[in-house]
Amino acid sequence: MIAKKRLFFLMLWLMAAFAIQTKTHFIHSKGLEGFVPKDSVPSFTNESWLNGAYQSAYSSHINNTLGFRSDLVRLYNQLDFSLFRIPHANKIVVGKNDYLIAQQYIEASLGYDFAGKNTIDRTVELMKALQDKLEQTAHVHFLVFFVPDKGSFYPDAIPQRYLKKKQPLTNYAYYVERCKAAGVNFIDCNSWFLKMKDTSKYVLYPKTGIHWSTYASTLAVDSLMKYLRIKFGMNIPRLSIDSISMSRTAKYEDDDIGRTLNLIWPLAYPPLAYPAFHFTPDTTKPKPRALFVGDSFYWQLYYPGFIDAMFGNREFWYYNKDVYPETFSAPKSTDQLNYIKDVLSQDLVVLIQTNAGYGNVGYGFVQQTWQGLSEGNDRVKEFELQIRNSAEWFEKVKQKAAQNKVSVDEQVHRDAVYMANQEVMNGKTK
């Protein structure tokens, strides 16, 4: 009987503690890392009450705002990880020796997503044609920057269950082979880093990070700078590393996966190197303008100041969709740009890709730019005429124009360009 009373009062005490913490946050509780959706009290309506949506939303609200929630989540995550090696992070795989690898990197490094020789051959042919066209007509240089991927860098850490489906070719390997044969300008950091892996004094790919290490990105930038000076004769500063400090605490994004696991006891990793550096620019000449198109590896060039040091602008099209730095302030997409005019205003275009863009280098940039140049103008005009001649299609485009807050003519042109691009990407050009 005494034991039951003690248990009852313990439950009351816990309920009171959770309620007080929910209202007052009297004990500091560290927030969770990664994507945490914003929560608010759901709006009450008669309809939402009758169909049960309000009750469901309010239940979720209570759960998301419960006192000590982040501590309980960490406890739950730690138990799952320690007992079963289950990571509570989106599509992250725990490899051998607790190396954390994004599932898509593993699958791409094993050829799961190989786009096929014909598709890649067609894309590389178009890349070479685009490279020549940009160079000859607008003096815009074109470059593909293949960055490392963790699946290729740590193949021994990949769990056995993935190795059973390994394919003979990967997008990255075949793209490099075809770019070399076709004469497409490229830098292959992946193979370079693999050659340095066993001899590098410092970690090139962090154990608990999704991207290359801060030290590795500095090496890559130095290589890029030299390439641009020698290959294109561009006014690019020289990078000098003054010193390298070692840290047992990961800085910047070197532990970006590890943090999102939200564990009580973070995973251990080897000491990491952090270079101190300076640039020697030629201030008598203007900096070139550059457009980067690609994935999140760009940010390892942006935040340390490399982009500002090299170029007179900071233009980046994330997955050929989100436009930065404008999107830092308000969302902006490439659909809102004068796409071709913007490309032709650059001195350099760089496609920065891990895993060769998973079979689509540039995420449609190559096809879209080629289509937007003179070779695609006639087909775009044909689609514009088709849209205007179809009452149903034209009505949908007008509705879309209102939603996007652009003129009907502009929306007709955008949709026509999209249709023409799809033909090129699917190999159905006239």
Q: Which blocks of ≥5 consecutive residues have pLDDT under 50?
A: none
Percent of residues in beta strands: 5-15%
Helix content: 40-55%
Shape: globular
Total beta strand runs: 10
Secondary structure elements and pairings:
Blueprint (H helix, E strand, L loop, with lengths): L1 H23 L21 H5 L2 H13 L3 H16 L7 E3 L5 E3 H7 L7 H22 L2 E7 L2 H4 L6 H4 L7 H12 L3 E3 H8 L17 H19 L5 E10 L8 H5 L11 E9 L9 E5 L4 H4 L3 H5 L4 E4 L3 E3 L14 H6 L3 E7 L10 H8 L1 H16 L1 H14 L3 H18 L5
Parallel strand pairs: 3-4, 3-10, 7-8, 7-10
Antiparallel strand pairs: 1-2, 5-6, 8-9
Helix pairs in contact: 6-9, 6-16, 16-19, 17-19, 18-19
Short description:
By secondary structure, this protein is of the alpha/beta class. The chain has helices spanning 2-24, 46-50, 53-65, 69-84, 103-109, 117-138, 150-153, 160-163, 171-182, 189-196, 214-232, 256-260, 299-302, 306-310, 339-344, 365-372, 374-389, 391-404, 408-425; strands at residues 92-94, 100-102, 141-147, 186-188, 238-247, 272-280, 290-294, 315-318, 322-324, 348-354.
